[in-house]
Design a protein that fits this description.
334 residues, 12 helices, five-stranded mixed beta sheet, Rossmann fold, single chain, alpha/beta, 35% helix, binds nicotinamide-adenine-dinucleotide
């Protein structure tokens, strides 16, 4: 396909080139307003100022486990994030599609960007409340560093949290926000970090036990559950994001769902229900449901780039610091 790129497309990097990182690259490929110029994984990074070739990047990663092996543009490194940001600064914004394992990992990555002197936009798809709380502590450092950081910009938190913030406007008082997600993937290995982080919410597991599990142990656990992970009352940052946006107390926000790791069909329709009281005293519920045909990757990476574009607009106006997906409207990337 011949793509009509804008005169000055936004130069994008993707940190983490696993399930979501590769989907992000696929989503960007036909876009004119953004070009993927950088990608990093655990063993290396690739950077091409005029744009990475999608198919070569994905086949190199899948065959050799690192984009660092890319001919001409790849560099092998055990410190790929730091190396990429210090050596190649011509990147306007990064989508951080990295595992948050341990739970402090994303805040550590944010500190690396702050210390590097790089300026631009960062977007993540973080999930845990406690992980977003760590980023809040970096608010003034991000601001001073000239970085506009948008957190919680995946599906949940992200798309559904933003939908709840919009839906809340009909009410004088919000009684509850209930997010229920259904995820279907053909095999768990395509999204290792996502599945490990989901296991960390299961009874008797936590972030550290899930992180320490070998791939074999994860497969054994999924054998026992027929590939299904059912979760309720999860620690999900939708709560703190809606609280920070002034919508309701975090105790009124609940998140749960079902993940089928052996079938791309969703086990249930992902939705958010926002219940409140109108100014006339009526109690009502707005429901926003995602189409069953949309994948997790579409619902995470699409919004992430919408927020990245919004972040670029803020950054160019000199507005820096930390924002959440519930306080900024994403823009549509063409
Ligand atoms: P994955 O396991 O498929 O891929 C992770 C990638 O990160 C790999 O390429 C790996 O090499 C790379 N990586 C790991 N450590 C690294 C390091 N130190 N330096 C550089 N690269 C490193 O992960 P995934 O399943 O795509 O998930 C990514 C993240 O997205 C997870 O944290 C997950 O929880 C999150 N997620 C969020 C939502 C949402 O709606 N908010 C939904 C799904 C997933």
């Amino acid at each position: 396909m011949i793509i009509d790129k804008a005169a000055n497309p936004i130069k994008v990097g993707v940190m983490g080139f696993g399930g979501l990182g590769q989907a992000a690259a696929r989503i960007l490929d036909p876009k004119g307003e953004m070009t993927l110029v950088a990608a990093a994984d655990q063993k290396g990074y690739a950077y091409n100022p005029t744009g990475l070739n999608l198919n070569t990047a994905i086949s190199t990663y899948n065959n050799r486990y690192s984009v660092g092996y890319l001919d001409e543009w790849g560099t092998l490194s055990n410190n790929s994030i730091e190396d990429l940001i210090t050596h190649n600064r011509a990147v306007d914004g990064y989508f951080l599609a990295l595992p948050n394992l341990p739970n402090t990992f994303m805040a550590d990555v944010a500190r690396k960007f702050i210390n590097s002197g790089w300026q631009g936009v960062l977007v993540d798809a973080l999930k845990r409340t406690s992980a977003v709380e760590q980023l809040l502590e970096l608010q003034s450092d991000l601001q001073q560093a000239g970085i506009t950081y948008l957190t919680g910009c995946g599906a949940t938190p992200g798309l559904l949290t933003a939908a709840a913030a919009v839906a809340a406007q009909s009410y004088a008082e919000i009684h509850s926000v209930k997010i229920t997600f259904g995820v279907g993937i053909a095999n768990w290995e395509a999204y290792r970090a996502t599945i490990r982080e989901d296991i960390a919410h299961m009874p008797e597991y936590d972030v550290e036990t899930a992180r320490a599990m070998s791939d074999r142990e994860v497969a054994q656990l999924l054998d026992k559950t027929d590939g299904i992970i059912s979760l309720e009352n999860m620690e999900h940052a939708d709560d703190i994001m809606l609280e920070l946006a002034g919508i309701c107390d975090r105790s009124r926000v609940t998140v749960g769902g079902v993940v089928d790791t052996r079938n791309p069909k969703k086990p249930l329709s992902t939705n958010v229900k926002v219940t409140g009281r109108t100014f006339e005293g009526k109690i009502s519920t707005h429901t926003f449901s995602l189409g069953d045909e949309t994948s997790m990757a579409a619902n995470v990476c699409g919004p992430a780039f919408g927020y990245l574009k919004a972040g670029i607009a803020l950054n160019r106006r000199g507005i820096t610091g930390l924002f959440t997906a519930a306080e900024i409207m994403p823009q549509f990337v063409r």
